[in-house]
Amino acid sequence: MKDALLATLIEEYSTVEAFASILMLESRALTAVSPLEQLPSIVEKKTELIGVLAKLEAARDTQLAELGLPAGWSGMELAASTDARVATQWTLLQKAAERARRANTNNGELIRVRMDYNQRALAALQVNVPRKANFYGPDGRIPAHSGL
């Protein structure tokens, strides 16, 4: 039974590493002048990997239950305390997850900075210029109140 848990942990680790790699690509895209060509495929791959990770986590929790252990972190800590192979893989998975978490936090900050910049650029473009007489309106006509 622990062999199945170990196999799931190895697959989960591999998937988290792939996710972290995608996050690094996303980071490069977010710092590019024009990221729009790259981001859709990155988001698609991230979504796919999140789905895989959710399935692996559910499988891990099922395997823990079959071993008579609680689901989640506490169950993994108990399983790791009784098997060195599981402990090693669990440690690797935790480190990979932490790297992915930091990369994701960094990307969130890059997105926030880019959005802030875009908001300020839009605000600068939307400055209300006082309307002067004889200026054409959006319909191409001089407004009636202009005195003409």
TrEMBL record:
Top-level taxon: Bacteria
Entry's Gene Ontology BP terms: bacterial-type flagellum assembly
Keyword line: Bacterial flagellum biogenesis
Gene3D superfamilies: FlgN-like
Coiled coil, from the record: none
Xref: InterPro entries: FlgN-like, FlgN-like_sf
Record family assignment: Belongs to the FlgN family.
Task of the protein: Required for the efficient initiation of filament assembly.
Protein name according to UniProt: Flagella synthesis protein FlgN
Organism: Paraburkholderia ultramafica
